Amino acid sequence: MSSSRPPSYITTPLIVLVAVVLASSVTAVALRGPDALVGEPASSRAAADGSERSDRAGATDGPPPRPPAELLAMRTQSWGVTIPRVPGELDRLDRVVRLTGRAPDRVMWYASWAAFEDFPTQLARRVARRGALPEISWEPWDPAGGRQQPRYDLAGIAAGDNDRYLRRWARQAEAYGKPVVIRFMHAMNGDWYPWGAGRRGVRAADHVAAWRHVVETFRDVGAHNVIWSWSPNVPFPGSVPLDSLFPGDRWVDRVALDGYNWAGFRPGTSWTSFADVMGEGLDQLADLSDRPAYIGEVGCPERGGDKARWVRCMFATAAEDPRIRGLTWFDFRKEADWRIDSSPASAAAFRQGLRDYGAAGSGAPAA
User: Fold this and answer.
1) How far does CA 309 lie from the centroid of its chain?
2) How far is Cα 173 from Cα 135, in angstroms, rounded to an integer?
């Protein structure tokens, strides 16, 4: 999400983070940040044997380049939080640790191209000093600029119109020198952001070309400390098929999903379990890519059901699903109260869930 949120039925809250899938008899909703609608599988799927995936991933061009292994090393059951109004509320992380008993492995925030002229080096350092991996949801738009924003046209990005800006960010990211995740153009399979392929005039091919150009620009500059995260919304009725948008494993270091339990906060939605919100999207990601998979944004409201139970089930489900390397909670109060401490019961559920989640995890802690 970003400082400005997506429409009512989308997966990631537009503020500058998770997903919903349609249960058989229940209409689920995915967040656009938290504003999205969820549902049916994409109409086109990758071949299960990987034959189509090889073409999309650029396998015919040789083995895809990857960041050094240590940049991707993270415990298998990691967790993260998003923070609003960066950097003003960074101190909220102290409260998150007190509430949950566990420091986050990742801290994510939203950075529009209009608001962040430079790579946020100092903020990344502050996050890293707290032992967390910085993750930036990097958004090519001006949140106050309306629906038509030709300055950030995807075809123009692919053609090099924004290269001066891109190279400045790349040089500054390279100079930062530590691992950082860039989650570029998230929820691209919807229509609530200017880059969304569900919008009139935005082509899936332009999204792919823009993504590849940005990644290659960073690599040309030498910013190999950047981990590129491709993070669509969970599929929903009318969303753009994921396989038409995937840039290929050569240009992606990890994949993720945004999805929320909208629980009636959006028309046509009902209380929906974490498993039902994420299930179909995870299946599609597994068909598309061999990269590690994460939950990029997720949230559940207090109203409409038992949030504490939902949170406990979320951690249990994520722990049992080997496809999920970690999840990031959308810790905002916006369309609903998504915060960890929306109630004492919710905070207690997080503390209990995080006590067990990742207890048997393997691998290095967040860099």
Assistant:
1) 24
2) 12
For residue 5, being part of any structural domain is answered with: no
Residue type, 259: G
> Can you tell me the distance from the alpha carbon of 124 to that of 338, in angstroms, rounded to the nearest whole number?
24
The number of distinct structural domains making up the chain is 1
Look at residue 12 in the predicted model and tell me its pLDDT.
42
As a whole number of Å, the CA-based R_g of the chain is: 18
Question: Rounded CA gap, 245 and 113, in Å?
Answer: 21
**Within-domain flag for 338:** yes
Cβ proximity of 48 and 289 under 8 Å: no
| Residues spanned by the domain of 85 | 10-356
- Model confidence pLDDT, tens digit, residues 184-194: 999 999 999 99
d(CA 354, CA 67): 29
- CATH of residue 142's domain is 3.20.20.80
* The two three-digit tokens of residue 310, written as one number: 């939902």
Q: 337 - beta bridge partners?
A: 333
Distances from the Cα of 261 to the Cα of 115, 133, 234, 361, angstroms: 30, 26, 11, 26
Per-residue pLDDT reduced to its tens digit, 155-168: 999 999 999 999 99
**128 in any annotated domain:** yes
Instruction: Check whether the bond before 87 is cis (ω within 30° of 0).
Output: yes
Q: Minimum mean pLDDT among 146-155, 254-263, 287-296: which range?
A: 146-155
Q: DSSP for 181-235? A: EEEETTTTTSSSSTT-TTSTT--HHHHHHHHHHHHHHHHHHT-TTEEEEE-PBPP
pLDDT, tens digit, 9 for 90 and up, residues 52-97: 343 444 433 444 555 654 455 556 799 999 988 776 678 888 999 9
Q: What local confidence, expressed as pLDDT, does residue 92 receive?
A: 84
